[in-house]
Design brief:
The chain contains 13 helices and 14 strands. It is α/β, with parallel strands linked by helices. The strands form three sheets. An eight-stranded parallel beta sheet has the order 5-6-7-8-9-10-11-12. About 50% of the residues are buried. The longest helix has 19 residues, at about 100-115. It is globular and about 65 Å long.
Length: about 350
């Protein structure tokens, strides 16, 4: 029998971070998000979360609230078991608001999950039960200490935020992490902070010193497709687009006009349906994929983990914001041992 959506409500919420999170784009001391709830005609409540980051998608907390409220009339009355129908209504209501779409889509999927009794990873194929994530080291003076602690609890891959104006400070921070965790694999994320030549020189220096670098993420400004292509063509490690790949159309452009080796997907950057489309483009074009996150809660990370495990499409995971966000209580959404994130407790 159909289970009908009868109401949609939205509310902003803030969660403090354990410590400031600093990148080349600025610092954050709390995670700011919007909770979206769908009421079903059987009394159940489904939840979604939107985490807008203005410099990435142009959205704000206020714009997400407005967009979600505008979408409400299109969703009320729909059958919660027909999630693709709801996704189409969301796309019509919020074509240029991916973070808002993410929260709405997440709520719809939670309604689908509750009404069908199925799990999201099975919806997306059920490829794996567990995946390994890196841990992000922000631009902080105690980067080495953080890496040492993380290495001690089982993390083996670190994503280092770089791209500040002082390249020597960047280098010292990477060196501190390497000294604290000599066997670690590194991923470099410049958040648009380098020039093309600066990015190439920085990577070359680290490789000459023996660093194990998996990839370089978004070395140049988002709209500098020419610069991004230049780095990808000459860099000895794979180059991944993040802020330059916000939509499936961006992914298609990058895949057909540049040698960029991979895309970093985020459900709050492209929407959940958008990420699924980018997966299809990357597979067709032979590009690699990373799944990352904004400053998201354990609930949102659980949805991304289900997407990663279900599709089996992602070569790299950067799902760690729940470790930055200071949430109380146990984590009911997934299990973690070091960098290994599992949907079931005994996943090996």
């Amino acid at each position: 029998m159909p289970v009908v959506i009868t109401a949609l409500t939205v509310a902003p919420f803030n969660t403090p971070l354990h410590s400031p999170f600093v990148t080349s784009q600025g610092a954050a001391v709390e995670a700011r998000a919007v909770a979206i709830h769908l009421t079903l005609d059987d009394g159940r409540i489904a939840r979604g979360e939107s985490v807008p980051v203005t410099y990435v998608t142009g959205e704000t907390i206020d714009s997400v609230l407005e967009t979600a409220r505008r979408a409400a009339p299109r969703l009320v009355g729909l059958d919660a078991t027909r999630y693709r129908q709801a996704f189409a209504a969301i796309a019509e209501a919020a074509p240029d608001a991916p973070s808002a779409r993410c929260g709405l889509e997440m709520a719809v999927l939670d309604a689908w999950r509750q009404t069908t009794g199925e799990t999201l990873d099975r919806l997306w194929g059920g490829a794996f039960d567990a995946q390994e994530s890196d841990l992000t080291i922000p631009i902080v003076p105690n980067a080495g200490d953080l890496a040492e602690l993380a290495w001690g609890v089982g993390f083996r891959v670190f994503k280092l935020k770089v791209g500040e104006r002082d390249l020597e400070a960047d280098h010292r921070r990477v060196l501190a992490v390497r000294q604290a965790a000599p066997g670690a694999r590194l991923r470099l994320d410049a958040n648009q902070g380098f020039t093309p030549q600066g990015a190439l020189d920085f990577v070359a220096r680290l490789l000459d010193e023996g660093a194990q670098i998996d990839l370089l993420e978004q070395p140049v400004p988002a709209d500098d497709f020419e610069g991004l292509a230049h780095v990808a063509a000459h860099c000895p490690v794979p180059v991944f687009a993040d802020e330059s790949c916000r939509t499936p159309a961006h992914a298609l452009r990058l895949a057909t006009t540049t040698p960029v080796q991979g895309f970093n997907c985020k459900i709050n950057k492209s929407g959940i349906a958008g990420v699924l489309d980018i997966i299809a483009i990357a597979r067709a074009a032979g590009r690699r994929l990373m799944l990352g996150c904004m400053l998201e809660t354990r609930y949102s990370i659980g949805v991304s983990l289900a997407l990663a495990c279900g599709t089996g499409a992602f070569h790299y995971l950067d799902l760690d914001s729940h470790l930055l966000v200071n949430e109380s209580g146990d984590n009911p959404h997934f299990f973690q041992r070091g960098g290994r994130l599992s949907l079931i407790p005994d996943a090996e």
